[in-house]
Write a structure and sequence with these properties.
- The protein is of the alpha+beta class.
- The chain is built from nine helices and eleven strands.
- The strands form three sheets. It has a four-stranded antiparallel beta sheet with strand order 1-8-3-6.
- α4 packs across α5.
- It is globular.
- It starts with 12 loop residues before the first helix and ends with a helix.
Length: about 230
């Protein structure tokens, strides 16, 4: 697999490492395709502590409460790494990791990853930046949970999805967006609450279902809707 054939965001692990580190990593990992809804990591698996890298796809980290409620808290896409915590401290997995769509994933044994972290400064720095990013995102989610309503969190999640898919465009069609149940787990709400707010967005003409896709006619109008809906 040639790096020149791939593009990773500069904020991701694979986007930060240099060509020499890429060659070293790619010579050690194995690559396979995971179908949608397939578990890449299971929190119940006490044996595996390998690290995974998203070459192409989307993976969501999910945990289940004692009551069986699903809570999703991080999403990983091209260039991101998964499972590095357990690879470093050799503790059990803290969550499941599930492919949201068919995804091409590279797998690296934990011992080899630890050796790279110890011997390759470029890999070590990329890992440090990655962990800082995780902490910042999780801190923001904690603040949002305490300071914002479920509807506000949902609007911001939809806006983030739209911005991630839009590029420079104002209008965007999000193919195969998260289901209402998946959105509920991300924003710490219920499916019924998500359905009500999605209905209000539809009535306002800012977020429309088109078959299995979500159509945002105008991101600017969606942002104005968020401002109008703020308490």
């Amino acid at each position: 697999m040639q790096r020149n054939d791939l593009t990773f965001p500069k904020t991701t692990f694979l986007g930060r490492i240099d060509d020499k580190s890429w060659e070293e990593l790619s010579s050690l990992w194995t690559v396979r395709t995971y179908p949608a809804r397939h578990f890449i990591i299971s929190a119940e698996d006490r044996e595996s502590d390998d690290v995974f890298f998203v070459i192409n796809g989307v993976v969501r980290a999910t945990i289940y409460t004692d009551a069986g409620r699903e809570v999703s808290f991080l999403s990983f896409s091209n260039g991101d790494s998964i499972g590095e915590f357990s690879a470093i401290d050799e503790a059990p997995r803290s969550s499941d990791a599930v492919a949201e769509k068919e995804s091409l994933i590279a797998r690296l044994p934990a011992e080899q990853f630890r050796n790279l972290v110890k011997t390759n400064p470029n890999v070590s720095y990329a890992l440090l930046m990655l962990m800082i990013g995780h902490l910042r995102r999780l801190s923001k989610r904690v603040v949002d949970f305490n300071a914002k309503t479920a509807d506000e969190r949902l609007r911001e999640e939809i806006l983030t999805l739209a911005l991630n898919h839009a590029g420079d465009a104002d209008e965007v069609l999000i193919e195969r967006p998260p289901t209402q149940s998946e959105l509920a787990s991300v924003v710490f709400s219920s499916r019924e609450s998500v359905a009500r707010e999605m209905g209000r967005m539809r009535n306002a003409g800012v977020a429309l279902r088109v078959k299995r896709s979500l159509h945002i006619p105008s991101i600017r109008k969606f942002e104005a809707y968020i401002e109008r809906s703020a308490p």
